[in-house]
TrEMBL record:
Origin organism lineage: Bacteria, Bacillati, Chloroflexota, Ktedonobacteria, Ktedonobacterales
GO terms for cellular component: ATP-binding cassette (ABC) transporter complex; periplasmic space
Name by which UniProt lists this protein: Extracellular solute-binding protein family 5
Family indicated by similarity: Belongs to the bacterial solute-binding protein 5 family.
All copies of domain Solute-binding protein family, residue ranges: 88-462
Pfam families: SBP_bac_5
Keywords for the protein's UniProt record, in alphabetical order: Signal, Transport
The organism of origin for this protein: Ktedonobacter racemifer DSM 44963
């Protein structure tokens, strides 16, 4: 999400520095780091990256899955791109539009994007504003099932200039986050010439994991779902004349086991890995041939509540659950300190958005029991509360094979037992969890679910909580609808001044704490690692995450160590 200061509200104010932490080792991986004869970037090399989850679609705006976004960051160039500090810059576009340069109308309803001349797709065909227009129309088609539709739905009309170098969008209402909706690879334009004769609903089915025409620093070479995805240099990349990308090739290996990732690192067969298991931090520190990278994430970890379950209509149940969670214990025990306690959806990466003085629900087991007592939920002989034939017994799920989330589950399960709530734990592979499981919204199967979320480069959170974003039309996976929240979303979307916008976000936070569509747990600190002899590996808090700046990754002597 874009952090926007003053009249420059399309530029991010806060730069979250990446902290590189080299560690001495008692147990080094095999091999020795290569040394460079030059401090300047060198072309060449095959970089191997371990992906913890399998991508589900490698087409822009076809997936909400983080690891699909990571790979998309190598395959597609967007109108705008973010950097490691979270700032947005022009990419295919010539400039960031502002009110001062005439790119944005004073009412935030008209937006003009101007593209660089001479852009090409990976197959050599022209890339221009026609592709942007085509993308809007395709994403608007329900059969495409776009991942992000909040901004797209607001477009009433658009016109492309005669030279096809600019497009002007007219929105039905003001929408301050509009640029964020066109930033980074997962929100990059689609190739009109390649897809225009295809039914929008068939695009993902046909080329979902094997896109044939791309625009980023790399293009797809080989895809073997369940094993690896190989991307190679795109000679038609818009920065190719500057020698980018430096690498010849990246191999993304699908490794859905943190134990296997650690073994790969210990054997020295991976150049990098991201979203590491914090419970293995001592083992990562022991790898003298690698450097560990930590950076505050834009993601918040939440215990999400399926509002389709009629029991959760009782606010007292949700309130008691919020009071029974010890966030500091989760941070210290499950995350080994690699997190920041947080009870809302905006961590310190968001300005506006983050509310430092927010009063979170207190950890109070006695108080939580009183709330349920007063609401008529009586403790049964099996120590589970009941009322009107209903039991406070729920399914609690998250992504499988995630050690720190399993620890979260154990801690929360134990604390909920103290207030008469029984949790049954069933976890799922990422592709199932973020697919049919959550989108199905079936009570008794999906009751409580834990996952991490963020909002690209802008703190606008309507996509996750607005009434019109409930599946199958959007990504409101809490299935929660509250008209008062919708009004606040519309209010913040119409404001460009960050101070005034922050005031509205404060109201949104309080409403969420009052209504509790989810229970905030903590703000993640991303843990990543890269091998010595590799350079410019700087994951960012937003968008492409691990592959921010991927065109500038390089290896000593043009040969990557793994």
């Amino acid at each position: 999400m874009v952090k926007r200061p003053g009249s420059r509200f399309l530029t991010i104010l806060v730069a979250l520095s990446l902290v590189l932490i080299p560690f001495a080792s008692a147990c080094a991986p095999q091999g020795t780091p290569t040394t460079s004869n030059s401090s300047k970037p060198q072309r060449g090399g095959i970089w191997v990256d371990d992906l913890f989850n399998e991508p589900d679609a490698l087409i822009p705006n076809a997936s909400v899955q983080t690891f699909a976004t990571i790979v998309n960051g190598t395959l597609y160039s967007a109108l705008f791109e973010g950097d490691a500090s979270g700032q947005i810059h022009p990419a295919l576009a010539t400039v960031l539009p502002t009110q001062q340069n005439g790119g944005i109308s004073s009412d935030l309803k008209t937006w003009k994007f101007t593209l660089k001349p001479g852009l090409k797709w990976s197959d050599g065909q022209p890339l221009n504003a026609d592709d942007v227009y085509f993308s809007w129309k395709t994403w608007s088609n329900p059969s495409f099932a776009a991942a992000s539709t909040v901004a797209i739905r607001l477009i009433e009309s658009a016109e492309v200039s005669s030279d096809k170098l600019s497009i002007t969008f007219h929105l039905s209402k003001p929408f301050a986050p509009f640029i964020a909706s066109w930033t980074d690879g997962s929100l990059a334009p689609l190739p009109k010439h390649h897809f225009e004769n295809m039914n929008p609903g068939d695009i993902k089915k046909t080329e979902g994991l094997n896109p044939q025409v791309t625009s980023g620093p790399f293009k797809m070479k080989e895809n073997k779902p369940g094993d690896h995805y190989t991307v190679v240099r795109n000679d038609n990349y818009y920065l190719a004349s500057q020698g980018l990308p430096y690498l010849d090739k990246i191999v993304f290996r699908a490794v859905p086991s943190q134990d296997t990732i650690l073994k790969d690192l210990q054997s020295g067969t991976a150049d990098s890995a991201w979203f590491l298991d914090v419970t293995k931090t001592p083992s990562y520190k022991a790898l003298s041939n690698y450097e560990v990278v930590t950076n505050p994430s834009a993601s918040y970890e939440g215990l999400h509540i399926n509002s389709n379950n009629p029991i959760f209509k009782d606010l007292n149940v949700r309130k008691a659950m919020a009071m029974a969670i010890d966030r500091e214990q989760l941070q210290k025990v499950a995350l080994l300190g690699q997190a920041i306690p947080l009870c809302t959806d905006h961590g310190p990466a968001y300005h506006p958005g983050y509310q430092q003085d927010l009063q979170c629900p207190p950890f109070d087991i006695t108080g939580a029991n009183k709330v349920l007592d007063d609401a008529g939920w009586k403790l049964g002989s099996d120590n589970v509360r009941q009322k009107g034939g209903q039991r406070l017994e729920f399914q609690y799920s998250t992504t499988a094979n995630n050690r720190w989330r399993e620890k979260d589950q154990a801690l929360i399960q134990a604390d909920f037992a103290k207030i008469g709530i029984k949790l049954n734990i069933t976890n799922y592979p990422g592709s199932t969890f973020f697919g049919p499981f959550l989108n199905g919204g079936q009570p008794g199967k999906y009751d409580l679910a834990e996952w991490a979320s963020s909002y690209t480069y802008d703190p606008d959170d309507a996509a996750s909580f607005a009434c019109n974003q409930i599946p199958p039309h959007g990504q409101n996976l809490n299935f929660f609808c509250d008209p008062s929240l919708d009004q606040l979303f519309q209010k913040e979307q119409a404001i460009s001044d960050p101070t005034q916008r922050q005031q509205v976000f404060n109201q949104i936070h309080q409403t969420m704490l009052d209504k509790l569509p989810f229970i905030g747990l903590y703000n993640l600190i991303d843990l990543a690692i890269h091998k010595k002899g590799t350079h410019n590996y700087k994951p960012g808090p937003f968008g492409n995450s691990e592959t921010v700046g991927v065109a500038q990754w390089w290896c000593d002597n043009g040969k990557c160590p793994a």
